[in-house]
């Protein structure tokens, strides 16, 4: 998860990922659409590939890049976990605030 | 989902390295803010079910530290006996509207665990029809750190080629 976040913490790579979410593209197409030089693009794609976010395969004399859903499922699961922690926590805060306010009302308890 | 529904967690944003959630509490803002600012209150709600705060050293002021431990005391849980230490450093406190802090994993001695992600948390408390709306933003400032490093690299001439800069950045990111 940390590796995914690190790989995405670069504006060009984030843009590459957003581009690929629309479907597979060749390295050349990615470079063209983002206005990057090909070697730079390849470098970013290598980092994304190492982080398991992008998959690359050779077809004829081109390299085709695809987004791997699995990396995002992991990120999603992690986000999901953080959300659940805060949801639980806020539910407990909610109950506690009710208690505090009821005590303030002379200890009357509600059903 | 209607805005401001009491009791429901609303996700305002969840992308990349930022999470923004909203929750309405049926209590006045003063009280909700207080629940975040006193150890005696935090101990009553902060830890998950079965994980009370066994340690809660709170110095609630800008620059102050909150060092705490959540311990699993529920025998039925998988992590029974496990301890989870946290270290919070407060950046900004404006009562009763805002708390900004750095949230990190820690150990019993108060050392920050550099292998785990560190978050910048901003909590905003708003008056809302006699209740309180809390907007909680959790951010991982990796991109800022990266920009700073790139700027440093260029002005100090550390990186003579893209290759070296890439390696430097990777190393710094790894170190957190």
Number of strands of chain B: 8
Order of helices and strands of chain A: HHEHHEEH
| Mean residue pLDDT of chain B | 79
Q: Sheet bearing the most strands of chain A, described?
A: 3 strands, antiparallel
Q: Widest sheet of chain A: strand order?
A: 1-3-2
Name the CATH class of the largest domain in chain B: Alpha Beta
β-sheet strand percentage of chain B: 35-45%
Architecture per CATH nomenclature, i.e. the level-2 architecture of the largest domain in chain B: 2-Layer Sandwich
Number of strands of chain A: 3
Multimeric organization: heterodimer
Q: Rounded to an integer, what's the Rg of chain A over CA atoms?
A: 23 Å
List the total number of helices of chain A. 5
CATH homologous superfamily title of the domain at 2-68 in chain A: Winged helix-like DNA-binding domain superfamily/Winged helix DNA-binding domain
Low-confidence stretches of chain B: 143-165
Average pLDDT over all residues of chain A: 83
- Give the H and E element order of chain B: EEHHEEEEEEHH
Instruction: Provide a count of the helices of chain B.
Output: 4
Commentary on this structure:
- The complex is a heterodimer of chains A (111) and B (176).
- With 111 residues, chain A is an alpha+beta fold.
- Chain A has 5 helices and 3 strands, in the order H-H-E-H-H-E-E-H.
- Chain A has a domain at 2-68: Winged helix-like DNA-binding domain superfamily/Winged helix DNA-binding domain (Arc Repressor Mutant, subunit A), CATH 1.10.10.10.
- Chain A has a 3-stranded antiparallel sheet with strand order 1-3-2.
- In chain A, strand 2 and strand 3 form a beta hairpin.
- Chain B is of the alpha+beta class and 176 residues long.
- Chain B folds into 2 domains: 10-140, START domain (Alpha-D-Glucose-1,6-Bisphosphate, Chain A, domain 4, 2-Layer Sandwich), CATH 3.30.530.20; 142-176.
- Chain B contains 4 helices and 8 strands.
- Chain B has helices spanning 29-37, 39-45, 142-156, 162-175, and strands at residues 10-15, 18-25, 53-58, 65-71, 83-94, 98-106, 119-128, 131-139.
- Chain B has an 8-stranded antiparallel sheet with strand order 1-2-8-7-6-5-4-3.
- In chain B, a hairpin with a 2-residue loop joins strand 7 and strand 8 (131-139).
- In chain B, helix 1 crosses helix 2 (39-45).
- Chain B is globular.
- The two termini of chain B are 37 Å apart.
- Residues 143-165 of chain B have low confidence and may be disordered.
């Amino acid at each position: 998860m940390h590796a995914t976040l690190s790989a995405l913490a670069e504006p060009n790579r984030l843009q590459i990922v957003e581009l690929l979410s629309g479907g597979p593209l060749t390295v050349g197409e990615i470079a063209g659409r983002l206005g990057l030089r090909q070697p730079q693009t390849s470098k970013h794609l290598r980092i994304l590939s190492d982080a398991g976010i992008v998959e690359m395969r050779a077809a004829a004399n081109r390299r085709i890049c695809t987004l791997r859903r699995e990396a995002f499922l992991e990120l999603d699961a992690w986000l999901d976990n953080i959300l659940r922690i805060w949801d639980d926590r806020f539910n407990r805060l909610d109950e506690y605030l009710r208690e505090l306010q009821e005590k303030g009302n002379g200890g009357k308890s509600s059903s | 989902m209607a805005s401001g529904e009491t009791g429901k967690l609303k996700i305002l944003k969840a992308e990349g390295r930022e999470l923004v959630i909203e929750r309405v509490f049926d209590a006045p803002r003063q009280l909700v803010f207080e629940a975040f600012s006193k150890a005696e209150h935090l101990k009553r709600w902060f830890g998950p079910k079965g994980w009370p705060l066994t340690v809660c050293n709170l110095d609630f002021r800008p620059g102050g530290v909150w060092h705490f431990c959540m311990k699993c005391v529920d025998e039925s849980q998988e992590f029974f006996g496990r301890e989870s230490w946290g270290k919070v450093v407060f950046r900004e406190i404006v009562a009763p509207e805002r708390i900004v802090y750095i949230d990190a994993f820690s150990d019993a001695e108060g050392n920050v665990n550099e292998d785990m992600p560190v978050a910048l948390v901003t909590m905003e408390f708003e008056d809302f029809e006699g209740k309180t709306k809390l907007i909680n933003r959790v951010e991982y400032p990796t991109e800022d750190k990266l920009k700073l490093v790139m700027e440093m690299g260029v002005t100090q001439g550390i990186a003579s080629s893209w290759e070296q800069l890439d390696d430097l950045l990777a190393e710094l990111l790894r170190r957190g």
